[in-house]
Amino acid sequence: MAMNHVRLVSRNLITKESIGVSFQRTFATGKAKKGSKGGAADAPKASSLSKEVKASTVVGANILKEGADPKIQPDSEYPDWLWHLLDKRPALSELRRKDINKLPYEDLKRFVKLDNRARIKENNSLKSKN
Fold first, then answer.
1. H helices of 23-88, where?
2. Are the beta carbons of 79 and 64 closer than 8 angstroms?
3. Is the dihedral of CA 18, 20, 26, 30 positive or negative?
4. 71 neighbors 52 (Cβ within 8 angstroms)
5. Which residues contact 57 (CB under 8 A, 6 or more apart)?
6. What is the dihedral angle through the alpha carbons of 82, 87, 93, 99, rounded to the nearest 10 degrees?
7. Do 111 and 95 meet the contact criterion of CB atoms below 8 Å apart?
8. d(C-alpha 9, C-alpha 7), whole Å
């Protein structure tokens, strides 16, 4: 009797209908929305802050639980070096074309750093090929 039951179960598992039912993929959480491809429901919501608050504070810069976002100060209150952080600096190829004896100290430091980095990369690639 047990052998007959095993034969029936094995026959049922092989048919197309039972394969479709037994190996049907399901999602882990919730129901899948038909036709949902990230439309308006998935878009980030518009900020509820007023333009005045956005213009006078650095929103999201506060890291303390009970603190407030810092206020934006006039440009004269910030240090001079801050305004040069995003300046373009010369690449290694450009520094190699210039005369090393006439380079300013900052550019000379950058040249040495970039040249050392390039030589290390080249040596590493030669070692990895061998």
1. 51-56
2. no
3. negative
4. no
5. 68, 69, 70, 71, 72
6. -80
7. yes
8. 5
Q: What are phi and psi of 104, to 5 degrees?
A: -65, 160
The residues, ordered by sequence, that sit 6+ positions from 98 with a Cβ below 8 Å of its Cβ are 107
Dig out the tokens for 95 from the structure.
């520094």
Residue 31 DSSP symbol: P
Give the Cα separation of 24 and 15 in Å (integer): 14
- Under a CB-based contact definition with an 8 Å cutoff, are residues 95 and 103 in contact? yes
pTM: 0.44
List 71's β-bridge partners, or say none: 57
φ and ψ of 44, to 5 deg:
-65, 145
pLDDT (tens place) for every residue of the chain, 130 residues total: 555 555 555 555 555 554 555 555 666 665 555 655 655 555 556 566 677 777 788 888 888 888 888 888 999 999 999 999 999 999 999 999 999 999 999 999 999 999 999 999 999 999 998 7
